[in-house]
Structure formats: structure tokens, C-alpha cells
Amino acid sequence: MFKQIKKYFFAILLKITILFSLFSCKTTSTLERQTIPQEDKYVITRELDLSPNQEESKYIFIRLYNPEYKNPFYVANILKGGLNATQVDETPELSHASINFSLDDNFYGLTSGGKYQLAQEACLYPQDNKYMKNCDPARSEQITYAIKVSPEEYENAKKFVENYADSTDIKYKSYLNFKIAMFCIKRKFFTAKEKKAFGSVVYPKRAQNKKIQGDEWRNENDFVCSTFVAYVLYNNVNKITDFFDENNIKYDYINVSDLVMIPGIIPLFYSTWENYLIAANAFIEEYPEFQIYLTE
Questions:
Q1: Is the pTM of this model over 0.85?
Q2: Residue 45 has pLDDT above 80, yes or no
Q3: Backbone φ and ψ of 260, nearest 5°
Q4: Pairwise CA distance, residues 82 & 271, whole Å
Q5: Where are the strands (E) in the chain, listed by range?
Q6: In whole angstroms, what is the distance from residue 184 CA to residue 229 CA?
Q7: Among candidates 73, 74, 96, 93, which has minimal Cα distance to 23?
Q8: What is each CA distance from 14 to 1, 9, 77, 88, in whole angstroms?
Q9: Long-range contacts: 84-88, Cβ < 8 Å, 24+?
Q10: C-alpha to C-alpha distance for 222 and 82, rounded to whole angstroms
Q11: What is residue 177's three-state secondary structure?
């Protein structure tokens, strides 16, 4: 009986998500993307405010993706459509997140499959990653963001992620997408306007953020890509910890587009996957202070 209920529940949820995906046909809006000709190779931000004490700060980088799949019927397209259809803020269409501590093309992303599910993802070598090899690098897009942190926070977060990357325990749990999907549907269509925006959302009472204690580097092993990035930031960047706690934000319900709304997250540059390094180098020409973060 339970198996039948479970079967019908997922069938109904799949139909709902497919329906939402049909509504999600708008053009991606990345760094004023609507004004950028399709043939442009990259776009870099022109309004980056760098403080004079640059040497006293470090940056953690977040790379968010708008993948275009080679097969239009690939199952991840359903998730992508559902995420885009349930956005409530003016954010880009995005469906995957990764994190890194340099601008080199080797960001850490969590996807299903393989012994090590938290693995380095290279836009220029998608064939080396089980998830990325299903995407078309010429049409898939990425936006690289940064958040300024203290040197101590930078080192703690870097060690935190590298420890996870060395572990086979961390897993991408697909069922968590259904939990987030149902929450996003409720937020989009059945929540008062003043409670929809990031920072004002009311999360389920059962949701609880977990803070690492002492020398511990992990408390959890089950994530999707966006909740892992939010978990890393929550546990290692004080201003994000404070913002989440003050606004009762639960990282377990953070979707990819929510990451853009975290205060202090700033966009650096946009490109297609195959032009990632071209864009990164163009960005550094504009902002040479970031040269130390690119070795490729």
C-alpha cells in the first residue's frame, strides 16, 4: 500500500513539475542579459566597488549555471524548468551551483553519481564530469559571483570544502529536490507577497540550521548543490551566519537563485561555458586585483 501511495505521489509531483517547466520559456537574464547580443562571448561587471584594504580581504567564488542539455528530454531539464517557474525575485535563470577559492576552472560542485559526488567541475572539460557531459558548452551559461571574507574565513571555508571533497560520505540526495520544489511552489503561488522575498520567507518549523562545533568540519552529508554551498557559507562566513540567523533563513531550503540574493554576493562576469577562461581573463584585465586568483 505504501509503495502504491509513494508511486502515485511522485507521479503527480512529476506532472506538476513538467507543467511548471512549460511555463519557463523566458530568456535568461544574467548581468542585464536581455541587452546582450547572443554572439557576445562574455560580459563583465563595470560597477565593482573594491575597498582600499584589498590585501586584508579574500574572496570566495560561487559559480552558478544555466545549463543547456544536449537532450531536451534529459531529466534535469524538468528540475531546471521547475526552478525557473517558481522564482519570486528578479534573479537569473539558474539550476546548478558550485564553489571555489580561485577563478581557475575547477569549481567544486555536488551532483549525483560516482564515488566522489562532490567533484571539481570544469566548464572547458565537461566530458570529465558525469553531470556536465550531458550539457552543450557552447550554449550553456555561467555567472561567477564573489563574496568578500576575512583571510581566516577564507582558509576555514577552503579547508571545509576540501575535507568534504576527500570524503565519499557526502551524497547528492535527489529526493531533497522534491522537498525544495514543494516549498518553492507554496512560496510562489500560495504565500502572501510580503513573505515571498528572500529574507522574509517563513520556513517550515522542522527546518533547523546546523552549526559546526569546535574543530568539527562537518555535521551533515546529505545535500543538493545549492544547499551545500549555503551550508558552507553559513558555517564559515560570520556575516552570512548572522544574516541567516537574524532572518530565520534555513539553508536546507535554499535553491540556486536564492544564493544570488545573499547580501554581499556580487556578480563578476558572465559567459558561455566554452568561453569561461576568456571571460575570467578579461575580468582580471579590468580588475587586476584579482590576478592572484587565476593561475590558468
A1: no
A2: yes
A3: -65, -30
A4: 23
A5: 42-44, 58-66, 96-100, 107-110, 118-121, 141-149, 171-172, 222-223, 266-272
A6: 18
A7: 93
A8: 20, 9, 12, 21
A9: 84/21, 84/24, 84/26, 85/20, 85/21, 85/23, 85/24, 85/188, 86/20, 86/181, 86/184, 86/185, 86/187, 86/188, 87/188, 87/257, 88/187, 88/188, 88/196, 88/197, 88/198
A10: 21
A11: helix
- pLDDT, residue 119, reads 92
User: Phi first, then psi: what are they for 101, rounded to 5°?
Assistant: -125, 15
Report the pLDDT value the prediction gives residue 165, as an integer from 0 to 100: 94
* 53's grid cell: 584594504
Q: What count of other Cβ atoms lies within 10 Å of the Cβ of residue 185? A: 18
CB-CB contact of 223 with 90 (8 Å): no
Q: Are 288 and 275 in contact (CB under 8 A)?
A: no
Give me the pLDDT at residue 31, please.
46
Mean pLDDT within 251-280:
93
Q: Could you give the C-alpha distances from 108 to 32, 97, 122, 237, 276, in angstroms and in order?
A: 26, 9, 9, 18, 15
